[in-house]
Amino acid sequence: MIRRISAFTLVELLVVIAIIALLAAILFPVFAQVRSSARRASCMSQLRQVGMAARMYFQDYDALPPRLSALHPAYQPSPSLFICPSDSRKGQHSGNPRLEGNLYLPTGVSYDYIPNWGIAHELGWWQPFPHYGEGKWGEQTPLVDCQWHWALYFKLEDRRDTPSPGARGWVLVLLQSGTVKAVPLSVYPDKFSPEG
Is the pLDDT of residue 53 over 80? Predict the structure, then answer.
């Protein structure tokens, strides 16, 4: 009696590899999208907490803070809340008035502080420094934004005050009321309004 050894043929092995590759090609983009949505949800939660801290500061001093990191540690003890989960550099940017980076807070800040943004002053969103008043739309006036949630990738050097035509993605905007709104990147700053 001759015993036959059962084994995969080359064709069967190639079919199995092709099926695994096909499943991977279908599932990897889905996993990436889920991770992106989780980072966006986490960022929105962090922005709401920063908004609550800014409201407490405003109640105490009748003015908004001169910079976002001024909320730490008295009003927001966790410095990690100032770093967006999608920011690849984790807040370690050279500072400027709008995106302060690690200029004042060594752990870094990922979020833009709109009251310090020149275009926000030109558009009448905020009164000039040092006192920021009610703002153009009261509780609906933008306070902080996060621009780290682009559709595919984001480069700091490509960052513009107005997005290029055909830009995809959105900006998360924290309003003075403490709510967070997703604004499409195709909306230019001077077109922003609470109703839009």
Answer: yes
Rg (CA), the chain: 23
The values of phi and psi at residue 184, to 5°, are -60, 145
Instruction: Please give the Cα distance from 108 to 93 (Å, whole number).
Output: 7
* Tokens found for residue 59: 């109640």
String of DSSP letters for 5-63: PP---HHHHHHHHHHHHHHHHHHHHHHHHHHHHHHHHHHHHHHHHHHHHHHHHHHHHSS
pLDDT band, residue 153 (cuts 50/70/90): very low
Q: Measuring CA to CA, which residue among 108, 99, 105, 102 is closest to residue 145?
A: 99
Q: What is the DSSP letter of 169?
A: B
How does 68-100 read in b/e, with b if 16+ C-beta sit within 10 Å? bbbbbeebbeebebbbbbbbeeebebebeebbb
Q: What strand order describes the sheet that includes 112-113?
A: 112-113, 142-146, 170-175, 180-184
Q: Is the CB of residue 69 less than 8 Å from the CB of residue 81? A: no
